[in-house]
Design a protein that fits this description.
The complex is a heterodimer of chains A (329) and B (298). Helices cover 29% and strands 20% of the residues of chain A. Chain A contains 7 helices and 13 strands. The longest helix of chain A is centred in the N-terminal third of the chain and has 21 residues, at 53-73. Chain B has 2 domains: 5-31 and 76-290, von Willebrand factor, type A domain (Rossmann fold), CATH 3.40.50; 40-73, no CATH class. In chain B, a hairpin with a 6-residue loop joins strand 8 (228-231) and strand 9 (238-240). In chain B, helix 2 (14-25) packs across helix 10 and helix 4 packs across helix 10 (280-288). Residues 28-38 of chain B have low confidence and may be disordered. Classes of the chains: A alpha/beta (329), B alpha/beta (298). Chains A and B meet through strand 1 of A and strand 8, strand 9 and helix 9 of B.
């Protein structure tokens, strides 16, 4: 805990205040002044007032109110969530019910799956009671695999609905070349599973421009990557090819590849180099897994309070006012 | 206009109340010993507000264009001493008339006596016993003295207990000249240093007249019952008043005031008992009545 909030517990002696008040009330006696009181028979002083039930209840409520206020200020976290199912939106209801039934969590609370579910679980795990189970129902691919296997204090089960395979990735390429071997090269690339759309002039979606013409390309042609001949720059080796690249305002210009690639080996090497250097990798989805509870440092120190604290305080305050009024009347 | 004690009690101006009461009282209640044929001219004195117009020398006014008052030489000096009991028990209010309490009645009665004394040319002084001490305003005559005494009366509030014998010693030095002592008290602390002081004054051949003031509720015990009561003076114990306790209360009060009356009779102190709800004129009339008249009536 980095904050001074736990020091609020030092305010607990404030609880003596209502106790003292109620003691005071017990000693007070209503007596009127009278000059000739001596002629009246003396009576025992009414030092003890009879405790009515409202007095005791009021004292208890006041003490509870103060304790709740101090606990709220000291950010005391009480685990309050039980078994819970986190359901992603748009899942097939039949599959969801089947999974919940197979996990035997029909009576568990259901909440919507938040984005970034792993981080969210780490952040809020302290709100679950000991021994509570968490079932995460998501679409395959919704939850990316973290660098390390996830570990939680509670048993968390991930069940992933089978998702339709993603559509093949589309690459927009401009080939400014007379040589038909370039077209056949990209047709061979497309056989590897991705689709390549060739065009004559670049658009905003264009990823790559192959410039195999004499002269310099028009100034308004822009793309993230260019393949050209010649030129020098930083050296990089990928897929068995020694390439150089230069960053220009028009994009990154690559050189050094076989020009044009004549053999299947050249094409394969160029494909590997292109994928290594320029194409973002596909995300690796989290597989369905079941974690075992592990002891971890509590993340409760960040000052998050349970959402029902203000309602508890308000309820206690209203109760205290009601009882005080009932005692007066 | 100020017909009832309630209306009087709400009149803030003590001077106005006195005029009204004295107007109802008439003249000649207290026969001045110095007035009449034996008075000889002594000196002129500058007029002060409050002097009676008939004492202004009009011929001298015509000559000097100034107001002068004829002062007379007196054969004897009778001083009127006003004793006010301002202990906390005097703050007891009337249960019938709002705003009226024993201190107010005592104060107003003493102010009326002071006004009468001033009108008659007597010297008068004031002793206020309260809060454990006795404040003495020395005796003098004249309208300024009346204002002084009225101011002292007006700023008196009922608090504390009666002074002890040591504190009353200074007040007993008033005994130099023959005096009439008017004491307004509630006689609740009767065997007290103040009672002994009055008794000693009586033994020094002064005329001592005690006005014993009570409220109507104190007389018949008609306080609300079911309430705990505490004495006004000191941290007294609690007392109860049930419906059956009224008889006891009346018996105890009767025994106490019978003791006071017996004590006064024994020492020849004139005791006048009054309730503060009574009209003030009647109270004053019986208080100021000379002892000879009382004896004649008996």
């Amino acid at each position: 805990m980095t904050s001074l909030q736990p020091w609020w517990w030092a305010a607990l002696p404030v609880l003596l205040l209502p106790l003292w008040w109620h003691r005071q009330k017990r000693q007070r006696t209503a007596a009127e002044l009278l000059a000739t009181a001596r002629f009246l028979p003396s009576s025992a002083p009414q030092q003890r007032r009879i405790w009515r039930w409202t007095d005791v209840l009021l004292l208890i409520v006041r003490l509870a109110l103060l304790v709740a206020l101090i606990a709220w200020l000291a950010v005391t976290v009480f685990p309050w969530r039980g078994n819970t199912v986190l359901v992603a939106a748009g899942l097939e209801p039949g599959w969801v019910e089947r999974e919940i039934a197979s996990a035997r969590m029909q009576d568990a609370d259901r909440i919507a799956l938040p984005p970034e579910v792993l981080g969210w679980l780490h952040h809020n795990e302290h709100t679950w009671r000991d021994g509570a189970r968490i079932l995460v129902l998501a679409r395959s691919g919704d939850v990316p695999m973290p660098a390390r296997p996830p570990r939680f204090e509670h048993g968390v089960t991930f069940r992933l609905a089978p998702a339709a395979p993603p559509p093949p990735r589309m690459h927009h390429v401009v080939v400014a070349a007379q040589d038909p071997r370039w077209q056949s090269l990209f047709a061979a690339f497309g056989a590897a599973g991705e689709r390549y759309e060739l065009a004559a002039a670049p658009t905003t979606q264009t990823e790559l421009i192959v410039w195999d013409r004499p002269g310099i390309p028009p100034a308004d042609w822009k793309a993230p990557h260019w393949w050209r001949t010649g030129g020098a720059g930083k050296r990089v080796s990928a897929g068995g090819l020694a390439l150089t690249y230069t960053d220009t305002p028009q994009g990154r210009i690559w050189a050094g590849m076989p020009w044009p690639p004549a053999s299947a080996a050249d094409a394969a090497a160029l494909h590997a180099a292109w994928h290594t250097l320029a194409v973002a990798p596909l995300p690796y989805p989290l597989p369905a897994l079941e974690t075992t509870p592990a002891h971890m440092a509590s993340a409760a120190a960040d000052g998050t309070r349970a959402p029902w604290w203000p309602w508890l305080l308000l309820g206690l305050f209203i109760l205290e006012r009601l009882l005080a009024h009932a005692r007066r009347t | 206009m100020l017909q009832t004690p309630a209306l009087l009690a709400h009149a803030a101006n003590l001077d106005l109340v006195i005029r009204h009461v004295l107007a109802g009282l008439g003249h000649g209640i207290h026969a001045g010993r110095e007035r009449g044929a034996g008075v000889e001219f002594s000196e002129y004195r500058a007029y002060a507000p409050g002097d009676e117009w008939r004492r202004v020398d009009w011929k001298l006014l015509a000559r000097a264009d100034r107001y002068y008052v004829r002062e007379a030489e007196r054969d004897s000096h009778v001083a009127a001493w006003l004793w006010l009991d301002a202990s906390a028990s005097m703050a007891e209010p009337s249960y019938q008339i709002k705003g009226l309490d024993k201190l107010w009645t005592a104060r107003t009665a003493l102010a009326c006596v002071a006004a009468i004394a001033q009108r008659q040319g007597d010297a008068f002084g004031l002793v206020v016993c309260g809060d454990g001490r006795a404040d003495v305003t020395p005796a003098a005559r004249g309208p300024r003295q009346l204002q002084r005494v009225l101011a002292a009366l007006a700023r008196t509030s009922a608090s504390g207990a009666l002074p002890d014998a040591a504190a009353l010693k200074a007040a007993l030095r008033i005994a130099a000249t023959p005096a009439v002592v008017f004491a307004a008290t509630d006689c609740l602390d009767w065997p007290s240093p103040m009672a002994e002081a009055l008794q000693r004054l009586r033994h020094l051949r002064h005329d001592v007249r005690v006005l014993a003031l009570r409220t109507q509720a104190e007389v018949d015990g008609s306080f609300p019952s079911g309430v705990a009561y505490r004495e006004r003076e000191g941290e007294g114990a609690l007392h109860r008043l049930l419906a059956t306790d009224r008889e006891t209360y009346r018996d105890n009060a009767f025994a106490h005031f019978s003791g006071v009356a017996a004590h006064c009779r024994q020492h020849d102190i004139v005791l006048t008992e009054a309730r503060i709800e009574q009209p003030l004129e009647a109270v004053l009339r019986s208080w100021l009545r000379p002892p000879s008249a009382r004896g004649a009536r008996r």
